Amino acid sequence: METAAEHERILREIESTDTNCIGPTLRSVYDGQEHGLFMDKLDVRIRNHDREIEKMCNHHFQGFVDSITELLKVRGEAQKLKSQVTETNRRLQDDGKDVSSHHLPELKQCRVQQRNIATTVDKLTHCLPVLEMYSRLQEQMRAKRYYPALLTLEQLEQTCLPRAGQYRFCSIMAENIPRLRTQIRDTAMTQLRDFLESIRKHSDKIGETAIKQVHAGHTATHVHALLTAQELVDFSPVYRCLHIYTVLGLREAFENYYRKQRRKQARLVLQPHSNMHETLEGYRRYFNQIVGFFVVEDHVLHTTQGLVNRAYVEELWELALSKIVAALRTHSSYCDDPDLVLDLKNLIVLFADTLQGYGFPVSQLFDMLLEMRDQYGEILLKRWNVTFRQVLDQDNYSPIPVSTEQEYRHYTSQFPQQDPELEKLPFPKKLPFSEFVPKVYCQLKEFIYACLKYSEDLHLSSTEVDDMIRKSTNLLLTRTLSHCLHYAIKKNVGLAELVQLIINTTHLEQSCHFLEEFISNITNVPPDTANATKLYGTSTFKDARHAAEAEIYTSLNAKIDQFLQLADYDWLAAVQGGGTLTASDYLVDLIAFLKSTFSVFTNLPGKVAQTACMSACKHISTCLMQLLLDPDVRQISLGALHQLNADVRECEGFARAGPVAGFQGDTLLLAFSDLRQLLELFTQWDWSTYLADYGKPTCKYLRVNPHTALVLLEKMRETSRKSNVFAQFRKTDRDRQKLIDAIIKQLRNLIAQHRA
Predict the structure, then answer these.
(1) Which stretches make up the Exocyst complex component EXOC6/Sec15 N-terminal domain (predicted)?
(2) Which of 285, 315, 575, 649 has its Cα between 20 and 30 A from that of 246?
């Protein structure tokens, strides 16, 4: 069965394959062992095909016979047609001989005319395109289509005129071609100059539109900018001129001319007006012209091939950038209005962002803005210096009275006052600080906001913004506010005002951490960030408070000096017998003043009030001591010492009464101890004890300096010599004088021993 199937396949292949390719098929038959059987099958297949051929021939036989019969009939008709054609040809030849013999000259003439006509047509065929093209050239020139006219001129010169031949009109046309080229070149150059003048005039408007797009939040892409430039300026003259000069072989000269003229325009644009710094409009017009200039150059760069290249534009920008930065540094330095500086900063940011959208590097502009930030900070410091002085000058330096909850909340919303005890008090009540505390605090926040406004859009990180604000605020605190507070301290010499200043600075010092939190909230930088700048507010207000405290001590002492100037002691007064001496009137008034003054100090920190009280007592003691030792007072009587002793007792009574809380025991009395021991030594005439115990820690007169005692004793000796002070002791007068001399001698020995 496999052999039969294989033979069947081979037979089908023989039937369907080209005869030239049957060899490999037959070889496969002889390669096998059954070729005899295959031959039998082949014979059977041949007989089958023969039967099919026979059937087909039988089917078409009658048609074949009919076709032969028709063909025989056609042959007879063809013989007849051939005879007719031969006869017709013979008659035509006979007739032609007659015509050629009679009309041959006419035929020759016609042939010549025909040939001339053909030549004329051929010449006109070459001349008509020249005339048509020259006509087209004239039309293009009239229509000011110079680039197509130049192409037509080139085609006329190189193709049409050589084909037309040597005709006079062709010569005239050839002579006109250079003139027409020159006319086209000059006209194109004129249009280019008009174009350059046009873009110079429209640069301001182009730049304004581009900057407005950025300000409106649009992306400054080339698509938007090109549409704007095309709407305002017709760029076709520069394209036409470029094409014309390219065709003329003058492209390089054209490029050089264009770039040279644009450099000149750039120098004009980059030269600011001398009064540009006076208004923001001056800066805006300057920036608009620069942006317009470079928008045009960018447009030309992207719409022409090689007229300007990237290197040329970058070179122009580098030149422009250096001049822009120099101009802004110069003109911004004249500005002293922070609002104008802030508006200028925003304008420079828009200017930089616009040009950055066109691919120009603007990092130098942002670096310059950081330089301007320092100038802006200085201008702010000057403005806030005036503001702080006005606040301090207008303040009444009295606690703020509040009558209603609304008033209370109004002040606590301006200043972070946290006092639970004050909250519990009923209305009306008083805030411990005066008006300038909430005003100064609000002004500090306003300054911080002003610094924040400048840092916007400068592409700074939150940490950089936070650091900038903190450094500027520190300058405000340590320089401006500190100076103003010291100015107020020196100006307000009243003790009540100084006391209020101390209270105010104490509350401002306590509010410094709220300022830290305020800055952190608006910059989103935690106050405990590593390397974060800390505010110097605490030290600023502490220093101001210390200055106010020192001024209180100085002012209080100055007031005491005014009272002491009223002292009028009779240094030669006799000792009064019987009764107790009363204090001098000036000292009574001084003590009353001190009591009144220290009653105001109740709101001060305890240490300040104690220091002021101790300072006042020491100053009184020192001044009284100076009165005793005054070189102008050459004589002092014992009666004068008794009067001074009475005054000191009055002072000691004041000190013992505790005018200021917080002193332990008789601490305040120590201020008068030097004077007390000195007066006791002289009024009780206890020299033996003094001389015997001198230098011992337990000495009763430990605080009496022998120099002081010697000076005072010498003044008493002078008195005893020139007056009758010891009249009741006349019998012992000489002995008393000797005693004084002896004591003076011993005091001098003590002093000498001390020096040794």
Answers:
(1) 41-211
(2) 315
